[in-house]
Amino acid sequence: NTEVLKSNLYKWLGLAALGGIFIDLFSGEIVNILSHGKFMEAAPLVPLWYLIIFSYGFGTTYLQFLFVKKKSVYMTVSGVFIGLFSILLVAVGVWKFGMIGAVSAALLANFITQLSFMVYARKLGCPSVGERAIFLTAAFVFIIYLLNLLLGFDFIARIAIFLVLASVIIYRNKNSWFL
């Protein structure tokens, strides 16, 4: 049933957005608590790792479709080429931008991998599985990350931003979450 799938997708995306926004805004505090302040330089990387996980979640449906269609040769060959591209991209990222370049390059390479699975699966007849909603959610989480990184919101502002955005997300999904 398409409606059930859509409802479940929006529930998942709402929760993913809430988690992403929380990590965007409070990764410094999370890393500080978990590492006793020893790895604070890694805090700006945590939201990017979250987006990598989000990207894997996006590609899972298409990957499963390709498995069902027995397209393992395509997945192997594309995996090798994209893997080599990823190594090159990460090397350039580290060379030019350090740690954040490495994680950003890994995110980009993973996105390209998942996108290639989507394009090929769609070509083979896989129906759309909420791509627009997924891309918009990821973009929204990434924009919050960039705004916090560039503007450096203070703690009270981050709490207020999270509460406002969480309220909007919960309100928009109230019918699908609470029925």
Could you explain the architecture of this structure?
The chain is mainly alpha-helical and 179 residues long. Helix content is 84%, strand content 0%. The protein is built from 7 helices and no strands. Helix 2 packs parallel to helix 4 (99-123) and helix 3 (72-97) runs antiparallel to helix 4. The radius of gyration is 18 Å and the shape is flat. The model has no long low-confidence stretch (mean pLDDT 87).
Task: Please name the defining characteristics of this protein.
7 helices; flat; 179 residues; mainly alpha; single chain
Structural class comes to mainly alpha
Mean pLDDT equals: 87
Overall 3D shape:
flat
Task: Tell me the β content.
Answer: under 5%
End-to-end distance? 17 Å
Question: What's the SSE pattern?
Answer: HHHHHHH
Total helix count?
Answer: 7
Give start-end ranges of low-pLDDT stretches. Answer: none
CA gyration radius, whole angstroms: 18 Å
Query: Biggest sheet: strands, sense, closure?
Result: none
Helix content: over 70%
SSE map:
Elements: H1 2-35, H2 46-68, H3 72-97, H4 99-123, H5 131-151, H6 155-172, H7 174-177
Helix pairs in contact: 1-2, 1-5, 1-6, 2-4, 2-5, 3-4
Q: Gist?
A:
This protein has helices spanning 2-35, 46-68, 72-97, 99-123, 131-151, 155-172, 174-177. The protein is mostly helical and 179 residues long.
